[in-house]
Amino acid sequence: MPIRNIAVGHYHEATQPDALRAALAEFISTLIFVFAGEGSGMAFSKLTDGASNTPAGLIAAAIAHAFALFVAVSVGANISGGHVNPAVTFGAFIGGNITLLRGILYWIAQLLGSTVACLLLKFATGGLVSSDSSLPFLLFFFG
């Protein structure tokens, strides 16, 4: 892999409308992924009285995360590439597909999106504790 493809970018890139629109797409898609995936795990745990670690609970969490990831990537695919995951953004930077400054914008948007999703879940559920069934999936995607 030639190192010449890696670019830092210019500081004016952070204020360009297309870069800000792409960062907003990453924020929204990550928010959707975390809210839908983790929210479904919390709902399954609440509905089944804590049976989220059973095989059925793990399958339900996997399917919920798969659908949430499909929707999240579909939302951002044409605008930002639909990274949703900071590791994917890092790979795109190393591969020379995005600049470092755009990657930093994406990382900030992704981390803020997941934080806002968790705060929304806390507010929407009245402080319900997160389930353990979706933890392996979140560690896989954000760990």
UniProtKB/TrEMBL annotation:
TM spans (from-to): 20-44, 56-75, 87-108, 120-142
UniProt-listed Gene3D superfamilies: Glycerol uptake facilitator protein (1.20.1080.10)
InterPro entries in UniProt: Aquaporin-like, Aquaporin_transptr, MIP, MIP_CS
Keywords from the UniProt entry: Membrane, Repeat, Transmembrane, Transmembrane helix, Transport
Any matching Pfam family: MIP
Subcellular location(s) per record: Membrane
Coiled coil: none
A GO MF label: water channel activity
PANTHER family, alphabetized: AQUAPORIN TIP1-1, AQUAPORIN-8
Family: Belongs to the MIP/aquaporin (TC 1.A.8) family. TIP (TC 1.A.8.10) subfamily.
The protein's name: AQUAPORIN TIP1-1
